[in-house]
Amino acid sequence: MRNRLKELRGARGWSQGTLAEALDVSRQSVNAIETGRYDPSLPLAFKIARLFEVPIEQIFFDSD
Amino acid sequence: MNNVSFRQANRRYLRVFLPVMVLYGILCFAGPYYLASLDAPATWLFATLAVINALPIVVVFWVMARFLRETDEYTRRNQSEALLTGGAITLSITFFWGFLEQYQVIPKWEYVSVMMLVVPTFFACYGIAAFYQARQRGDSLSCETD
Hints:
The complex is a heterodimer. Helices cover 53% and strands 6% of the residues of chain A. Chain A has helices at 5-11, 16-23, 27-34, 42-52, and strands at 2-3, 60-61. Chain A has a two-stranded antiparallel ribbon. In chain B, helix 1 packs antiparallel against helix 2, helix 2 (43-70) runs antiparallel to helix 3 and helix 3 packs across helix 4 (118-137).
């Protein structure tokens, strides 16, 4: 699954650590999601969407 | 899954893990030292000290399980994978070792019980697995990449 997390984070001028703190996860989690090495659970994906105030489908895309 | 934040989970883990490991280290030396200082210690005293010496490790397993429940999902997945790998390697080693002893390829240890080495072997295998798997995933423990 691909995502725009890095782009959204960059637009707000946040570091991975800042985003990790806002989501209450480790910085490694943010890094793994951004680089596509880890697909978050639905609750975490919704939390990300709420934080950036965009629909979930505008952040995560099917790889196909 | 829980009401504890990721950072609180780390703190709660270390707050129990570190003192318990220090206590374990002290007991490893204090128990035999105390027994050696007695003239003819009773069997029940040996048994009591042996059980007390092993108890901190039970607490460590409990706090590790609590940490897995409380930490974030990515850490939980990675740690679960490392624990499973460490456990599988340790059980494989003990199984091989047991058969080698059974077939009298290697002698039974006389002074130290091989069973004593199972837990340290597990922690070593778990640690190596966690490190190796983190490297395979490309996780960095210190550098911030933006």
